[in-house]
Amino acid sequence: MNHSAQVVLITDADTPVGRAMIRRFSAGGAHLVLNSASGGAEAAADIAAARAAGSNVIVASLDLSVGANANQLVETAERELGGLDVLVHNNDLLAPASVETCSEALFQEVMHANAKSAFLCAQASGKAMASRQSGCIVFVSSIHAEKPTGSSFVYSASKGAVKMLAKEAALELGRHGIRVNTIEAGPVEGDDERFHSRLTTLYHSYETKVPSGQLGSAEDIAHAAGFLASAEARYLNGADLRLDGGFLLHYMDHKMKRPKGGDSP
C-alpha cells in the first residue's frame, strides 16, 4: 500500500511492533515522527534503513501522558514535515497486578502510559488533522480490552478505556474527516510468559489454540495498521480489528491443532 508523502507519528517506537511500524510505513514512502524511550537507540537500524530509503525521520523521547508533550510532538510534525496524516498509538505497558493487591501508584502508571497518553495524543492529533478535514488514528490495542488476562487487571482496564476512547473519537473526529480505529492484537511469540497467570490457562499451549496453529507477529500488526491508514480503508471508522488468528474462538482443548507427531485432535 502506498503511503507516499504521508506523515506518520508512531509512539513507543522501540518495541518490536514499533520497529515493524517503522519498516512498514517507510517502505510505503511515509515520513516519520517517532517517540522512543531510548531516543532512537533501540530502533537505530530500522531508523537508518528508513532514512536510506528516503523517509524523513524525527525522533523524540517524551512522556506522552503529559498534554504539553503530546502537543509538542504533533506541533513538530506540523512544523517540520508539513502536517500530520496518521497517528499510530502503540503504547503497551504491562505490569503484573491483581485487584486485591495493586498499589494506587502502579494503577496510575499503567493507566497513564496506555490510556491517558492515548487520549492526549488523539486530542492533539485530532486538532491538527481537523484543520485539513482528513486524517487517520490507529490505536494498537489488545484482545484484553475484552478478555481478562488473569495476570494484570490494570492492563486490561487500560486497553478497555482505549477501546471506548476510540469509539467516542470516531464519532466526534469523524465529522472532520478523521477515521479512528483499533487493532485488538492477539498472541505473539513470548506472550505465554508475558501474560503468565495463576488464575487462567488461557496461554497454556497458546500457539495451538490459534486454529491455524501459527502465532501472529509484529509484522502482522504493522501490516494491519498500514491498511487502516490507507485509502483502501476510507470507509472504516470506529472499527475494532481483532487480529488474533481466531485465538479467542477456542473453547475445547482436545480440539486444538496439535504439532505433527503430537496427539490427534
Automatic annotation (TrEMBL):
SUPFAM superfamilies: NAD(P)-binding Rossmann-fold domains (SSF51735). The keyword Oxidoreductase applies. The keyword Heme does not apply. It holds the Pfam family adh_short_C2. Belongs to the short-chain dehydrogenases/reductases (SDR) family. GO terms for biological process: bile acid metabolic process. PROSITE patterns: ADH_SHORT (PS00061). GO terms for molecular function: oxidoreductase activity. Keywords: Oxidoreductase. It comes from Paenibacillus rhizosphaerae. InterPro entries: NAD(P)-bd_dom_sf (IPR036291), Sc_DH/Rdtase_CS (IPR020904), SDR_fam (IPR002347). This is Short-chain dehydrogenase.
